[in-house]
């Protein structure tokens, strides 16, 4: 399916956005009424004989446009139309493209028999093509980078394990002119990344630390991105119940988001320097597995009492965050992780939890989230929750002693590995809920959503 920016071309069918007021004035209002169309948000209705697909919107808001286009594109793809057109303007172009690309996304790599859609061409009709060309290409880059992230998240753990994750990063680096350094277990041992190595010890796959670099000619800012890349999280010896284990291929979504962001910013050619670090590890069981009761010496030198091997992401991130801070002097440090089920309990499945010390930075991120159609909310640190990570035998425990506020205590655990000078430069994003879905919502379909790619790319475009 091709998406083309054009002025006036004939297509098989025209998509029209209608709210209640526009519906009342519409030349086919009687036909639409007869078909039961009331212009309510996300309702769609074909008028085949008029070559129109009517799309209901509450108002012209970008969120509403993106949402209804996501419904419309699925209808169009399952129809026999070969081309469709949308009228676009400066306000809605991004939302329309996101609806088409993200709402129309499919992942069929493991299906032997998929019906091919007849829909070949989507025309975005505008007055002056050159006026819209930049917005068009930017929106396409970000949407396609989001799909790239989704593809990796959706890949099964047999195919996407730490070594193949590293290979994929190398391929992206080659295609997009990035620097790529991979550290295997031998190097990780030398670097004293014992917390990360312990998590991956029972896996048949070697753990890998991926380091990608993008650098423009005269970068204005230096940014570090860190991603949790658990290619599978069985829980380890604190084994997950079987129903919770299903979907845990998505525990690499933070790392996948970081790769997607690198793809987007390198194609947008932003004037910055960005370092991406992904801790690619598989958390398994076995005779060699790390155990509850173990005490790990992290790269930072801090000792960690293991009380639950399913709280493994924070151990990987502790070492990767330390490694990143030891190697790169950054203006901003952001980590992305499917870190806690508690984040979903706190915020619901649709919202990314944002944690950190700088209210200003959190505010900037929430603005970017608003502009990019992702949902974020701040989860506040406090000194009482911080105390719950105390350990009787080590410097810190890997889980809280109380069952509430688990997303925040996980964030506070990471905070222990952020150097004093970086406290206000760092934010942690818990994407446990927002990174994966088992039912379609907004422009997301079953599987990985690509959470983080749109809001972080938007933020990096603004600095
Ligand atoms: N990967 C999980 C968190 C998760 C849960 C992500 C559900 C997406 C959906 C993480 O490693 C984990 O297991 N966390 C534990 C922490 C607990 C042991 C303190 C959790 O959330 O239960
Ligand atoms: Zn876990
Ligand atoms: Zn995990």
| Order of neighbouring strands in the sheet with most strands | 7-8-10-9-13-17-14-15
Q: Uncertain spans, ≥5 residues at pLDDT below 50? A: none
CATH-defined superfamily of the largest domain: Zn peptidases
Measured between the Cα atoms of the first and last residue, the distance is 34 Å
Report the sheet with the most strands, covering strand number, pairing sense and barrel closure. 8 strands, mixed
Structure annotation, total helices: 16
What level of helicity do the residues show? Answer: 25-40%
Strand content: 15-25%
Mean pLDDT: 98
Spell out which ligands are present: ligand BES, zinc ion
Extended strand count = 19
- Gross morphology is elongated
In the CATH scheme, the class of the largest domain would be Alpha Beta
Task: Return the CATH architecture of the largest domain.
Answer: 3-Layer(aba) Sandwich
By helix and strand content, what is the structural category? Answer: alpha/beta
The oligomerization state is: single chain
Q: Using only CA atoms, what is the Rg?
A: 23 Å
CATH topology of the largest domain: Aminopeptidase
Number of domains: 2
Verbal overview:
38% of the residues lie in helices and 21% in strands. With 463 residues, the chain is α/β, with parallel strands linked by helices. The two termini are 34 Å apart. The protein has helices at residues 20-25, 29-34, 62-77, 93-103, 129-154, 162-176, 185-190, 194-200, 242-245, 253-268, 313-327, 341-347, 359-372, 383-387, 406-415, 453-462; strands spanning 2-6, 13-18, 44-47, 52-56, 83-87, 121-125, 179-183, 208-215, 222-233, 273-283, 295-297, 303-305, 332-337, 351-356, 375-378, 396-397, 426-430, 436-437, 447-448. It has 2 domains: 2-127, Leucine Aminopeptidase, subunit E, domain 1 (3-Layer(aba) Sandwich), CATH 3.40.220; 144-462, Aminopeptidase. The model has no long low-confidence stretch (mean pLDDT 98). The chain has 16 helices and 19 strands. The strands form 4 sheets. The protein has an 8-stranded mixed sheet, sandwiched between helices. A 6-stranded mixed sheet has the order 1-6-5-2-4-3. Strands 11-12-16 form a 3-stranded mixed sheet. One zinc ion binds next to strand 9.
């Amino acid at each position: 399916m091709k998406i083309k920016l054009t002025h006036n071309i004939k297509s098989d069918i025209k998509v029209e956005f209608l709210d209640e007021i526009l519906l009342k004035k519409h030349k086919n209002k009687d036909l639409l009424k007869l078909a039961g169309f009331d212009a309510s948000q996300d309702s769609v209705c074909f008028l085949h004989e008029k070559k129109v697909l009517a799309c209901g919107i509450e108002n012209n808001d970008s969120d509403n446009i993106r949402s209804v286009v996501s419904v419309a594109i699925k209808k169009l793809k399952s129809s026999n139309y070969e081309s469709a057109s949308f009228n676009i303007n400066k306000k809605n172009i991004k939302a329309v493209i996101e609806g088409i690309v993200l709402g129309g996304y499919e992942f069929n790599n493991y299906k032997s028999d998929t019906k091919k859609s007849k829909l070949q061409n989507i025309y975005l009709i505008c007055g002056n093509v050159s006026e819209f060309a930049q917005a068009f290409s930017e929106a396409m880059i970000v949407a396609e980078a989001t799909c790239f992230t989704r593809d990796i998240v959706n890949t099964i753990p047999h195919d996407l394990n730490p070594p193949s994750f590293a290979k994929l990063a190398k391929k992206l680096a080659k295609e997009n002119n990035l620097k790529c350094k991979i550290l295997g277990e031998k190097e990780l041992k030398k670097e004293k990344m014992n917390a990360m190595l312990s998590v991956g010890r029972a896996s048949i796959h070697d753990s890998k630390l991926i380091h990608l670099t993008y650098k423009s000619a005269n970068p204005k800012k230096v940014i570090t991105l860190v991603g949790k890349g658990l290619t599978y999280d069985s829980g380890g010896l604190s084994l997950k119940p079987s129903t919770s284990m299903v979907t845990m291929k998505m525990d690499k979504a933070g790392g996948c988001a970081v790769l997607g962001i690198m793809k987007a910013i390198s194609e947008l050619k932003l004037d910055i320097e960005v370092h991406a670090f992904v801790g690619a590890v598989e958390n398994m069981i076995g005779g060699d597995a790390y155990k509850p009761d173990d005490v790990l010496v992290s790269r930072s030198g801090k000792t960690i009492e293991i009380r639950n091997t399913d709280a493994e992401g924070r151990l990987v991130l502790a070492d990767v965050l330390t490694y990143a801070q030891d190697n790169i002097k950054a203006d901003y440090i952001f980590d992305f992780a499917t870190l806690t089920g508690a984040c979903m309990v706190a915020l619901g499945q649709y919202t990314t939890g944002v944690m950190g010390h700088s209210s200003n930075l959190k505010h900037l991120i929430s603005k970017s989230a608003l502009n990019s159609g992702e949902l974020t909310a701040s989860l506040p640190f406090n000194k009482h929750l911080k105390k719950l990570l105390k350990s009787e035998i080590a410097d810190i425990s890997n889980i809280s002693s109380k069952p509430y506020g688990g997303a925040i205590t996980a964030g506070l655990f990471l905070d222990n590995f952020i150097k004093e000078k970086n406290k206000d430069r760092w934010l942690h994003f818990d994407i446990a809920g927002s990174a994966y879905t088992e039912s379609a919502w907004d422009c997301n379909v079953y599987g990985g959503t690509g959470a983080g790619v749109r809001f972080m790319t938007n933020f990096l475009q603004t600095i």
